[in-house]
Amino acid sequence: MASEDRFRKNFINSITGFKSVALIGTKNESGTSNLAIFSQIFHVGANPPLIGIVFRPNVVARHTFSNILATKYFTINHLTEDFVNKAHHTSARWEGSEFQHCGLSEIYLEDFPAPFVGESQLQIGCSFKERLDVQSNGTHILIGAIERVNLIENAIGEDGFVDLQQLGTLTSAGLDAYYATELVDRLSYAKPGHKPTSIKKS
Amino acid sequence: MASEDRFRKNFINSITGFKSVALIGTKNESGTSNLAIFSQIFHVGANPPLIGIVFRPNVVARHTFSNILATKYFTINHLTEDFVNKAHHTSARWEGSEFQHCGLSEIYLEDFPAPFVGESQLQIGCSFKERLDVQSNGTHILIGAIERVNLIENAIGEDGFVDLQQLGTLTSAGLDAYYATELVDRLSYAKPGHKPTSIKKS
């Protein structure tokens, strides 16, 4: 039965497609930091800038959920191949801060209350906005507002596009697979009767 | 101001990371089919198997939203490079069925009521379960139950893992960028005190 359960988890987690994997940094009310890897982060809106995170019930990462509700701030830190093993290791059931246990740099920027990951090339500071509960299986969704973004300025295109491949940001699939990416194309805004054309900058 | 708005959309849509892009097939109550590209599909749970889709307010894809609420069934169809231009074209404001306008095959499997995309190498049939409304910006989230999955059997590993790279499934970022992927690694289940090791099948 355990093997059947593992098969099902791998299979269902794979088929929903590639995911935006990142490390989420928080603090609890006593000031202890926490770092956990999440692969269910999604865009909710650009104006105001909002993101969503899925928290499955009874998963290891429940500290992140309770910390966000208690202290209202969190950070999202993209992953590169350099530290993917350390990032994956945050999903173990650690006592105390995963920053120290997994060898990742806990940094603070100006007066933002939640910790960022020093190794990360794209860091986002967020505040808690809203909680949604999925009745079908007890999953929770938290909505956060993007308060600040830290990345190197020359990674931002003239039109606002950030090429995540150039930054080395990984994507994930299934429960444990990490992938690098290669741009196939950027396509023009779609209109009826006009086939989309490439707008890739070479 | 329009250029500032476009910059903001590109920027915020980019930084949330890679997305699981797919075509969603539906029918309205009169039987007219609809096909639309979505990049906000996320895993909600494996048992029961549930997925979520984000619908931003006032976007082109609102037919998909109303069709799912009216007819209760929809399909999720992964994209490959072969037909990414046709898939992107479904986001234009078409009258009538995008299958025909964009040159994609509308197929029906057994008695499943929603249309699948014949070109797609991984097709998922879903039923509507639940609707959540995001108060912060009027966005809607629909939760669906996975009813059936169509893919070639030898794409499924012994442990249930489906290698999306081998299937050619794309990921997207920003508003208009499509990426192929390359496996960096699969990592072992994380435990305190033991560094994760590669479980990649060569």
Description:
In chain A, the strands form three sheets. A seven-stranded antiparallel beta sheet of chain A has the order 2-1-5-8-9-4-3. Chain A has a two-stranded antiparallel ribbon with strand order 6-7. The termini of chain A are far apart. Chain A is globular. In chain A, a hairpin with a 5-residue loop joins strand 1 and strand 2. The model of chain A has no long low-confidence stretch (mean pLDDT 94). The first copy, chain A, has helices spanning 2-15, 62-71, 84-89, 98-102, 164-167, and strands spanning 22-27, 33-38, 41-46, 49-55, 73-78, 106-107, 116-117, 123-133, 140-150, 171-173, 177-186. By secondary structure, the first copy, chain A, is an alpha+beta fold. In chain A, 19% of the residues lie in helices and 35% in strands. Chains A and B meet through helix 1, strand 3, strand 4, helix 3 and strand 8 of A and helix 1, strand 3, strand 4, helix 3 and strand 8 of B. Strand 11 of chain A pairs antiparallel with strand 11 (177-186) of chain B.
What secondary-structure arrangement, pairings included, does this model have?
2 copies of one chain form a homodimer.
Chain A: H1 2-15, E1 22-27, E2 33-38, E3 41-46, E4 49-55, H2 62-71, E5 73-78, H3 84-89, H4 98-102, E6 106-107, E7 116-117, E8 123-133, E9 140-150, H5 164-167, E10 171-173, E11 177-186
Antiparallel strand pairs in A: 1-2, 1-5, 3-4, 4-9, 5-8, 6-7, 8-9, 10-11
Short description:
Chain A is built from five helices and eleven strands; from the N terminus they run H-E-E-E-E-H-E-H-H-E-E-E-E-H-E-E. By secondary structure, chain A is of the alpha+beta class.
